[in-house]
Amino acid sequence: xxxxxxxxDFSFPDGEISESAAIGARGIFGTPGFFVAIADVKRVxxxxxxxxxxxxxxxxxxxxxxxxxxxxFCFDVSPDExxxxxxxxxxxxxxxxxxxADGDCVRRPRPYEEPTxxxx
Length: 120
Description:
Layout: H1 38-45, E1 51-59, E2 69-82, E3 87-91, E4 100-101
Antiparallel strand pairs: 1-2, 2-3, 2-4
């Protein structure tokens, strides 16, 4: 949540949510959910606050001798209230920075690390 648009020098810090997954060809991986206060959602609808979400994925493909890959994303959550319908129209336009793959990314992919297993 922000009062203004993201500044040009925004660092896109890593959050607390982190997941590892193995995804096969044509596989699907969903992102974890998170809570947003209703009062904050109303501020975003009223255009007095801005809401962004961003993330990244580092991955290896199945081809031998290829470099590790990275994809980064940042979206501006842009709801518009449709008063005559009693609904909210949700848009998620891509933010200008932090949307790219491989050489267009802000950061380089991290080396692969074997996921740690939870202790019982």
